User: What shape does this take?
Amino acid sequence: MNCEQLAALYEEYALGVLEGEERAELEAHLARAGDPCIVGVAQARWVVAQFAHAAPDAQPPAALRSKIIDAVKPSADTSRTAVPIEKPRLSRQRAIFPVWAWVAAAALALITGYTIRQMNNQNDQLAQLRKEMKLATMQNQALQNQLDMDRMVAMVMMSPDSTPLKLMPKDKNMPMVHAYLHPHMGVAITADQMPSMPSARTLQLWFVPKTGKPVSAAIFHPDASGQIAFVAPVTIPRDEIAALAVTDEPAGGSPQPTTPIVWMAQVN
Amino acid sequence: MLLAVVQPWPEGKQPTDAVLMERILQRDSGALEALYDRYGRPVYSLVLRIAQHPSSAEEIVQDVFLQLWRSADRFQISRGPLEPWLFTMARNRALDFLRLKREKQRRREDSDSDILPSAVVRPDPEGDIDQHRRAEKIRALMTSLPEAQRRAIELAFFEGMSHSEIAAATGEALGTVKSWIRGGLLRLRESLGEASS
Assistant: This one.
């Protein structure tokens, strides 16, 4: 079966009811990088996930919230939101001890203090190692994600079914943005020498339909070297897209454009 | 000196999921608290419905939110909102629990609890504006379905059964079960379309 024939089964697969040959055939498609079924099944998972709203409403125990937050505290950066709190002072207590008891207590305190200091040093080193390991894992994952995305971009760009488009900037000093519109795999967007964006703003890609309001396709930022390369799913039928447009929006994106178009390409 | 975390959000301002995920990437536990306050209840409701056991549901929900904390770097808001990814992850984990409990063999798709955020993509970005309206539509849809069809969908979604398992559990013909499920999914899509229009 080809992807178009399998499309009817995406939601049944996402629901987990599909079996036998149909399931095996669809999974063979999903195992191939860049197969259009991957995007189709991802969208079907979104649709099927909505059944979660049919579960009877239940209040989680109050303690669950603090259990979760306590569990992440060791890896949280408390310096961002932390405020100092004074340690409660202990009230003075008088007691009478013989001198030898004071000496023994002092020796014990010294040994305990030394041991605690040693343990703290080891804990600090361990925490530092853990932090470095976590950072390396995150960097590795980010690189892997970028590699996957670059591969996807290359596949869409090279596909004979993709339509190349040039999104022209309204400001002549801005670079041109390239788009490759594929009916199933999505739209690949690439650009170089893009200006940097403040963190409170984002660029947002829109499908402008022949009739009706623009439909959000993706939000994105140029990377540190001013490059853009990503693939966004095509969420309205290819024939209904009149244009692709990019606007500058607040971080997180907007349901509808709130600023004038910065880049635009007509789609024939 | 002891350290205590203060509420970092200004009064009355609700940060978006994207902003909170960015703050989680910076290891801000306050952002996780805010996301828990937003999604903890529906996620717990879903998991409890599947696992049927409050203490197990608690463990699974904790696991889901810790996974969110660990996998924040994989999340790209452009691919879709957070809620369906959380639902998918929570459902898969709860079904795994259920299957282990029943000593059933796990199937490949459903055993992938740590599903990547990119594997759950909203088909219509604009349709996500009104989440409450969408939830109401789903509840209305389920109550409008004939009892047998609703039961079939519940067995699939909440108990992780396949077509043939549902047929065996309900005593209905396999073809009938397939058409109930397909019809239910079609109605779901239509409902979501109406909710976004």
Summary: The mean pLDDT of chain A is 83.
